[in-house]
Amino acid sequence: IRQSALRYRRPVRGMLRAVCPPPAEAEMAAFRENFRATGKARLSLVVHLVEGGETCVEFEGEFVALASHAP
To answer: What is the pLDDT of residues 24-61, one digit of tens each?
Structure first.
């Protein structure tokens, strides 16, 4: 995780469900192409922690993938 942010919208009092919509296909294609071309790529994801149909917490993170190089 390169960077992240949390936003607390309301108190949590029960069971949570994490919901992370998939990135748009164009964003995934760019991620794959960057990784193929440079060995690294970034992808932003937003996760909603939902209780009773309402978002309680929102997490946004920028994830970085780096190719591993075998010795």
So the answer is: 999 999 999 999 999 999 999 999 999 999 999 999 99
Query: What is the spatial distance between Cα 22 and Cα 62, in angstroms, rounded to a whole number?
Result: 14
User: What is the pTM (predicted TM-score) of this model?
Assistant: 0.79
Annotate 59-71 with DSSP letters as a single string.
EEEEEEEE-----
Which residues does 56 contact at the CB level (< 8 Å), separation at least 6? 8, 9, 10, 11, 12, 16, 49, 50
**Phi-psi domain of 48 (left: phi exceeds 0; alpha: psi -120 through 50; beta: other):** beta
Tokens of 43: 């992808």
Q: Is residue 61 left, alpha or beta, with left meaning phi > 0 and alpha meaning psi from -120 to 50?
A: beta
